[in-house]
Amino acid sequence: MQIGFVGKPSSGKSTIFSAATLVDVAIANYPFTTIEPNKGIGFVRVECVDKEFGVQCNPRTGFCEKGIRYVPVELIDVAGLVPGASEGRGRGNQFLSDLAQADALIHVVDASGSTNEEGEPVALGSHDPCKDVQFLEEEIDAWFFGILEKNWKKFYKSPVEGKLKLLELMSQNLSGIGANPSTIEQALHKTGLLEKRLEMWNDDEKKAFAKELRIASKPMVIAANKADLQGAAENVERMKKQFPHLMIVACSGISELTLKKAAKEKKLSYLPGDSKFEVLGELEEKQKKGLEYIQKNVLEKFKSTGVQEVLEKAVFGLLEMVAVFPAGTKGLKDSQGRTLPDCYLMPKGSTALDFAFKLHTDFGNNFIRAINVKNKQLIGKEYVIKHRDAIEIIHKA
């Protein structure tokens, strides 16, 4: 699973990416600071199951603090997109292609209105951030439509009989943008085009299909960044009213980055997503004022910096992933003595058999049964995994 960060230049996209991952990236308020995509690991929070078993877990990846498991997620940050990106402006086609395999997108918007559509600095509040939300959706829709057009002749000139053959044909040629039979079928149903012969589609219908395919295969949450600046909070509320179909989260990427760096330097105690922090030692006057500003204008006002929340909205809200812990009825340790070392994120609707294959191909191929370790009940391969399940897979040796 991969989450992509998108947005116009200087929206604070790379700052939020850096805050989420603590990967050092170029950050500046001028267009195209980022050229090559940055990749890193962020974390989403899951209430750990260790306390239910009366043990302390030892994560192999991620970490666990105060009963909260931080599960790793792959993130990618691409260069800023400008109007006309789908036609190649600003190397737009390359940047869009970098996002092809992203499962969901976080659109970082400058909620303060202090950068224009090109990402150039303007007077605070003089640009309407609602325009940025609309432009980026239109650019990605146009990108999808362009890919569809390039492959169109392959679709209607190939003989296909029945829905399954059609979905297979389209997914083979649209896999480069992350489309699959499920998202293609969703788009066909939404547009009412499932039963219409492909050669009969007009341009408007193709564009409508491309838009619905984008919505299904690249769901998007809005990170309304710079929410602490003057007038930004009002802009966030306007965006929520104008785009009720989107999840919109008020964010301050620079605040999260500041807090995480200070915590890494042991100057304060802070966990991602918290509404407060604790100073651990002496601070310089400049640092004190900066932290006081964050506490008053960000944490007290929005209850968090928003960075952790927007990641979790993407993973658990848009993608509806569920967390599952491999465990055993006779012991919770792995071969190296680590207690509950792993936590996997699985798509909603995944079965015990899907989980077996996630752990190892041999487990899936030789599946016998599974056990819900929390209640010791036997479960079959068709059992649908629930969030925070602890599952043991029994398989042939």
Oligomer: single chain
Q: What is the CATH fold-level name of the domain at 322-395? A: Ubiquitin-like (UB roll)
CATH superfamily of the domain at 322-395: Beta-grasp domain
Mind summarizing the main beta sheet? Answer: 7 strands, mixed
Estimated structural class: alpha/beta
User: From the 3D coordinates, which CATH architecture of the domain at 322-395 would you assign?
Assistant: Roll
Q: Percent of residues in beta strands?
A: 15-25%
**What is the count of DSSP helices, taking H or I runs of 4+ residues?**
13
Uncertain segments = 25-34
Computed over alpha carbons, the radius of gyration is: 23 Å
* Silhouette: flat
Q: How many β-strand stretches?
A: 14
CATH class of the domain at 322-395, named: Alpha Beta
Give helix and strand order, one letter per element, not per position. Answer: EHEHEEHEHHHHEHEHEEHHEEHHEEE
Distance between the termini: 30 Å
- Overall mean pLDDT stands at 89
Helix content: 25-40%
